[in-house]
Amino acid sequence: QVHLVESGGGVVQPGRSLRLSCAASGFTFTSFGLHWVRQAPGKGLEWMTFISYDGTNKYYADSVKGRFTISRDSSKNTLFLQMNTLRAEDTAVYYCARDFSYYFDTWGQGTLVTVSS
Amino acid sequence: EIVLTQSPATLSLSPGERATLSCRASQSVSSYLAWYQQKPGQAPRLLIFDASNRATGIPARFSGSGSGTDFTLTISSLEPEDFAVYYCQLRTNWPLTFGGGTKVEI
Q1: Does the distance separating the beta carbons of A44 and B100 come in below 8 Å?
Q2: B5: which chain A residues are within 8 Å (Cβ-Cβ)?
Q3: How confident is the model at residue A83, as a pLDDT?
Q4: Which residue among B42, B89, B100 sits closest to A103, beta carbon to beta carbon?
């Protein structure tokens, strides 16, 4: 069974950093691209970033370009999101999702990031 | 960036009724559109991809149609578990974008 489990969320002060993880299981990790999608409280979905199956291609939303970095570790079947210079508007539930031709066919349960002083 | 506009924002219906949700793109996107369902406190679930193809395990009462700029998600007869928020999503280029959502409420 395909499973994605996010971790690493929490409360962080503006300007600080946080790293999210997404542990994958139930599928061949090195065969799939992966995404991060976020959802601010009471708001809609916002795509953040994508990494290809082999890590060679990465794309970012303008809102996080230069501040967030996506990476993956195939030895650990884990996806990461390094978030730097966090802002209040980055407060959201962050989901990792498996790529399906640039749609999202499997989602994790999400991890909440709150940026507040 | 192509903008997706969903309407209506809220759809008030009863179980057993037909639901028709709209998603309009600001320019033609061929058939590169998906629909997702999200219930409170849960992650979204893929329902339809490439405008009209049901994802694995999705009941036949969910159907998608359209191409170009106008797309429709139809739920033929609402079940109690279908009351949720529905999002459309575009995959033609980067950034990937979502519509603002339609809430289907009782």
Answers
A1: yes
A2: none
A3: 98
A4: B89
Query: To the nearest whole angstrom, how far is the Cα of B76 from the nearest Cα of chain A?
Result: 23
Segment B70-80 mean pLDDT = 97
Mean pLDDT of chain B: 96
φ and ψ at residue B13, rounded to 5 degrees? -140, 170
DSSP letter for each residue of A16-80: --EEEEEEEESS-GGG--EEEEEE-TTS-EEEEEEE-TTS--EEE-TTTTTTEEEEEETTTTEEE
pLDDT at B1 over 90: no
pLDDT band of B43, cuts 50, 70, 90: very high
Angstroms from A55 CA to nearest CA on chain B = 17
Averaged pLDDT, B33-56:
97
| Tens-digit pLDDT profile for residues B10-27 | 999 999 999 999 999 999
Write the CB contacts of B5 (distance below 8 Å, at least 6 apart in sequence): B23, B24, B25, B26, B99, B100
- Residue segments in chain A with a per-residue pLDDT below the cut of 50: none
Which tokens sit at A78? Answer: 């884990």
Which two three-digit tokens encode residue A7?
């971790």
Interface of B with A (CB under 8 A): 32, 34, 36, 38, 42-46, 49, 55, 87, 89, 91, 94-101
Q: How far is CA A91 from CA A113, B11, B96, B103, in A?
A: 5, 28, 20, 22
